[in-house]
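Reply to dn_fold:

You asked what the input looked like. This is it:
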Amino acid sequence: MRSAFLIAPLLMMLSACAGEPTRMGASTKLVEAEEAILMPPPGSFSVAGITQKRFSNGLQQEIFLSTTSAVPGQNVVQMRLYGTRNDLRYRDDHLRFRTVTEAGIDAEMRGTLPGIPMKRSPYLVQNDYGAFGYAFGRPSPTELCMYAWQQLRTPEGEKPPFAGFGAVQIRVRICETGASERKLLAFMYGYSIIGAVDDMRWNPYGPPGPVSDRLGHSGNPIYPPEMTVGAEPDAARPVAVARPARRAVQPVAEPVPTALPGADRVVVPSPVRASSVTQPAANVAPASSAGGTIVPSPACVGANAATAGACP
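and this is what came back:
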């Protein structure tokens, strides 16, 4: 009986220490392409693989993209979500949040694109999520590389009171053979963030913008893009077709009918050009020296024909 009373508390202590089984190194693993929290623009680069790592305060994905470049390395998008819940109670490996600085970006580019001189763009640009920066570099005349960065975070002190809770950081490294700056930069304007944190307070994007005063009021027509008042839709507009230029034709001076002196005859211009005049056929009136066909006068036709000495 005494041994039974001693074993019972021991069993209760062991059951209180029980937990879910875990696998060592489970914080980093390969995931399927459909689990990406950022999707490339349609028709651009395909997702070749994803490496995901969980932290006590965030999630990081390395989204590897297809590439045709000869530059060493892999096209990749690094996506970091801050503000996630700790999946293991005793984990303390925090994902450090580093704000974007010029020195930090230079160090990142040297690490991911070693030996390639990168030039940062001086222009202020933004996509649907906000402002971003980018740099281009040419490792060879036929290769072009882009490194782009973006940080999404609600400004501190902004309402609602949960401002600053959660953040997103994005890094994009792309190299391609024969690509233009416009083509690579289109990636930053076409990608979609499809991941979030299941928490009502998590909002790195800030409050939505105000609704335009033009909506719902008369006298404020809103047209589709590139359409003005009175213009037809693009589908109904005629398409200009390039045609070969016609050779200018010089006008030909038509000869004026003239009367032969001393005769009641009228000279009608011949339709045959002087360069192509042939011998007249039988019963065709001969051509005069003026270049026309002689039409007999009415006085030379009929019974008076014999007495008309001037008739042809």
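The longest strand covers residues 130-140.
Hope that clears it up.
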